[in-house]
Design brief:
heterodimer; A: 283 residues; MetI-like fold; two-stranded antiparallel ribbon; 13 helices; 2 strands; 78% helix; 2% strand; disordered N terminus; B: D-Maltodextrin-Binding Protein, domain 2; three-stranded antiparallel beta sheet; 12% strand
């Protein structure tokens, strides 16, 4: 600050500009460094997984694998990794396909304040997130069995309940900032309700819908305990395979391959969601 | 069997807890408690079983951490079951308790038939918990034609970690705890654990054991308990019985005294058996240990372990156990499950999985009862310079302690040896 009060015959404003520029540059580099640090923090744990996925032998205390190979991929394939991946994809997509519209409807109603005791309803909707899944699952298994619900149906139902808090939360936020004036304008200009929904409403909430769908997908994609206990072992999903494999010592290459397979689809989806919503906002 | 019993993951602890809670609950709810499991389908003959089994799909829930075991079931056992008209579907679980949880939940909900679990690879704690919940079908094992190859007086098959088997599970594998050493470094191999401890004190830093609750480290604790007390018959039946405290304090004293002579002065322990194997492979220590010694040959053959690796023969024998296949009382496909359990006992199957290249699980059969040509093949199986034949390896085998002991010993080690010295 001293520089600013020092009298200077020429260039007081010039210095200020320079200072501002330096500060802006420093902030920019700071942000960049921050981004790099955060990215590194997220990526570094994957380095050993990547190495292990192609390590046929990596004895302690070597810093890198001593024998490279694809043994882990062959074993993972033999243990049924690919069918399990397909099942997990289907499960995630099913949960997402049900929980996203449900969350959108609930979120919209809550955002418009049309729900009596809205805060309580919101709290109730978020409750499944707060309760330990293992305890809930043990109880719900019995409930589903008493009701005679087939395992796979019960599985999808429970996962949808687990996913709805996320989708509702996101959609409520989206609808809170949603200007219904656009819909009214479209209607004034003669658009039918179908037209309004498809051409005005959905495009406006699309980024939020994509984010909600992604989170709901993750709920189905990553679940272990519900799939096994409520699903009665009918669906041997990727987390089941990964959990079983990781419960032993000495399977590191297989575990690494399964972990990669479990990570790649969500990362791809997340990238797609991000790119999609960027395009929307840029338009 | 290796890790069916004593997988010590948090999930397992949780699972056991939940099972225990469910058992307690179901006892209150009571529709379950009177089913101590009799053959309610009442199969009179094997022909009836075989006929009912045709066309059934059997869900075998088994711990899925053993890649070779998974491959054996998928590639050898399942095709053989298919020949008898039974489809075998493997459900891999991270923990055998998960399977039991499902069964207990079903029983608790009053589902007395048509259960999702048909067959479980089980022993020890999980078997006992299931017995308490009335979760197992009992009295069916004598029907299996291949049970004729079993020795009815075999103590390992009569009691499972102290719980009487009573026809509620059919044997599948035997296992023998073994220590291995590098003969190039250990000129005069010890013949007892006491001698081994003395050797370790004379050669600081060249011996260690996996930190319990690792499965193998936990077995080493039990083996050491036998050593300091003078044998299995000297150890009280349960950890709360008279004399138990004296036995364990002697064990902690011995292991704490040994600690400074261990690898890295006992400041740290290998986190699991695989880490100890890596130390042994890298010549950081001269001993390793395993509950599956049949795998040692392969590790010598592929160059992981030195060619001079040998199994340590202890005068007093080592821990042995068996693992089993159990059918839940409410299994939807009991006949099919019985066919699979019978097939698992067939000499051809027992021979196939005894091959270390396939799985390396020791047979439960009595070889005198097996047809001569097959018995010879068992004898010829991978003649090894590393591992003695199973009859020699299992000579004087010690029965496992009651499953009640496992967790208290692991906790005691943590409190008295791992943290007690610092």
């Amino acid at each position: 600050m001293t520089a600013l009060v020092t009298p200077a015959p020429h260039g007081r404003s010039g210095r200020r500009v320079l200072r501002a520029r330096v500060e802006a540059r420093a902030a920019k580099w700071g942000r960049r460094a921050g981004t790099v640090a955060v990215t590194a923090l997220l990526l570094v744990p994957f380095l050993p997984i990547l190495l292990w996925a192609f390590a046929d032998r990596w004895p302690y205390p070597e810093l890198a694998p001593t024998v490279w190979g694809v043994g882990g991929w062959l074993t993972a394939t033999a243990q049924g990794a690919w069918p399990a991946l397909t099942r997990s994809l289907l499960l995630g997509l099913t949960v997402s396909a049900i929980a996203t519209p449900l969350g959108a409807m609930a979120g919209r109603a809550l955002a418009r304040g049309r729900v009596p005791y809205g805060k309580m309803v919101t709290a109730l909707l978020l409750a499944p997130v707060a309760v330990p899944p293992f305890a809930v699952t043990m109880g719900l298994t019995t409930v589903a069995l008493r009701l005679g619900v087939p395992g796979v149906v019960a599985l999808v139902a429970v996962l949808v309940v687990a996913a709805v808090p996320y989708t509702t939360y996101i959609m409520r936020a989206a609808y809170a900032g949603y200007d219904e004036g656009f819909e009214e304008t479209a209607r004034t200009l003669g658009a039918g309700s179908r037209h309004v929904l498809l051409r005005v409403h959905l495009p406006l909430v699309a980024p939020a819908l994509a984010a909600a769908a992604f989170l709901a997908f993750l709920v189905g994609w990553s679940d272990y305990v519900v799939t096994l206990l409520i699903g009665a072992g009918r669906i041997v999903s990727l987390p089941l395979l990964l959990g079983a494999s990781a419960s032993a010592s000495g399977n590191d290459p297989t575990i690494a391959v399964l972990a990669l397979l479990a990570t790649i689809p969500p990362v791809l989806l997340l990238t797609a969601v991000t790119v999609l919503s960027r395009r929307r906002t840029q338009r | 069997m290796r890790r069916t019993t004593t997988r010590r993951t948090r999930a397992r602890a949780l699972g056991t807890l939940a099972t225990a809670a469910a058992v307690a609950l179901s006892a209150c709810a009571a529709p379950v408690s009177n089913r101590t499991g009799t053959a309610d389908d009442g199969y009179a003959s094997w022909e009836d079983v075989a006929a009912d089994a045709r066309g059934q799909e059997v869900s075998l829930w088994m711990w899925g951490g053993d890649e070779k075991g998974n491959a054996y079931v998928d590639d050898v056992l399942a095709p053989a079951a298919a020949d008898q008209g039974v489809t075998l579907r493997r459900v891999p679980v991270a923990d055998t308790a998960d399977a039991l949880n499902r069964v207990v939940s079903e029983l608790q909900a009053g589902q007395d038939s048509d259960g999702a679990v048909d067959l479980v690879w089980v022993n020890g704690e999980n078997f006992r918990t299931g017995q308490q919940a009335g979760a197992w079908e009992c009295g069916w094992t004598d029907l299996l034609p291949n049970s004729a190859y079993l020795d009815p007086t075999d103590p390992l098959l009569a009691e499972d970690f102290g719980t009487p088997v009573e026809g509620c599970e059919s044997p599948w594998h035997k296992a023998q705890f073994a220590l291995a050493y590098d003969a190039a470094d250990v000129q005069h191999p010890p013949t007892s654990l006491t001698e081994l401890f003395d050797w370790a004190r004379a050669h600081p830093g060249r011996f260690t054991y996996p930190a319990p609750p690792d499965f193998t480290g936990s077995a080493f604790l039990r083996q050491s308990l036998y050593e300091v007390t003078g044998g299995p018959e000297q150890v009280p039946a349960g950890p709360d019985d008279d004399g138990a405290a004296g036995a364990t304090s002697a064990l902690w004293a011995e292991l704490a005294d040994l600690e400074p002579s261990l690898w890295r002065g006992g400041d740290t322990y290998p986190r699991d058996a695989a880490a100890l194997d890596d130390l042994f492979a890298g010549d950081q220590v001269d001993f390793t240990m395993t509950y599956g010694p049949a795998t040692l040959d392969a590790r010598v053959a592929d160059g992981t372990f030195p060619e001079t690796t040998r199994v340590l023969t202890l005068d007093d024998g080592t821990l042995g156990n068996a693992s089993f296949l159990a059918i839940p009382a409410n299994a939807a496909h009991q006949a099919g499950a019985m066919v699979v359990a019978d097939l698992a006992l067939a000499p051809e199957q027992q021979l196939a999985k005894a091959d270390p290249a396939v799985w390396g699980q020791y047979p439960v059969l009595e070889l005198d009862r097996v047809p001569d040509d097959l018995a010879e093949q068992f004898a010829d199986l991978a003649p090894s310079t590393v591992v003695p034949p199973f009859d020699e390896l299992s000579r004087g085998a010690d029965p496992e302690l009651s499953a009640d002991w496992v967790a208290p010993l692991e906790r005691g080690w943590r409190d008295n040896v791992l943290t007690g010295q610092r």
